[in-house]
Amino acid sequence: MKRLTLLAFVLLPFLVKSQDISQHFKAYDIKKQKTISLDDIVADMANADVLFFGEEHNDSIGHYLEVSLFKKLATAYNNKVGLTLEMFHTDVQPVINEYLAGIITEKNFTKEARAWNNYKDYKPMIEFAKTEGIAVIGGNAAARYSNSVTKNGLEVLAKLPTTSKQFLPPNTIDTLTGRYYDKFIGLLGGHSMGDMKVYQTQNFWDATMAWSIAKFAKENKGKKIFQVNGRFHSDEKLGTYAQLKKIAPKLKTLNIAAFAAEDFANPDWEKHKDLGDYVILTDPKVKKSF
Q1: Is 35-141+214-282 a CATH 1.10.10.10 domain?
Q2: Which residue, of 12, 205, 225, 242, has the fewest CB within 10 Å?
Q3: What is the pTM of this model?
Q4: Is the pLDDT of residue 120 over 50?
């Protein structure tokens, strides 16, 4: 009954019946050049360690697909999976663990773990993990650290007390040039970023998430990892994806770029071919979650 309630909770924002969901997304395998099912992606994970799901934060169909994939991965690999999230910070890991263990209330959890305003979109994954005893990892750097980097640059991190450094990667890689930088400039509308501190903050987020994934993988050999983040962090295998390949090159990774597309009715897959291993287009007519 609890799982059915959660599923209904996910579907409510966009008022689509579960049996009709397949009509509102199309998944494509870039390498095989064909449309596929979620089960095909799950099967491919037999030869991979980490699956990135790059989302649009307000994509209702995308959120439904995330929990669907997470459950399918858990079933296929006997719950030997872990969930890593951009949406929670590394310093609230004890709070996440307390909630998963059933020690604290959801109200305390969402408040003290500083859950995003659209937590309802990620709640089904958290609740499923709680029910099945699956680890959930807060992967991102806390806002206080990000704000400090934006103001003072990456060098400020060296000044943090040892007790604070435990929540952050030992080395933050700052890529000042290349495709990721060009994309970031484009995201800001082509405006100059002066001494690059804003871009350093972006790299800091990426490095922290990559470090969180690598750390979990090292401590949980053989477990499949489902990483959920905004698609900018993993599209074109840049950002967090690229940082992970630098610090844990032996991990085998796959990535999904999921987004509402204007060409949903007649997809131009060639146009999307550089985004990742899989592209999932969602119906732009479906109501957004916020």
Answers
A1: no
A2: 12
A3: 0.92
A4: yes
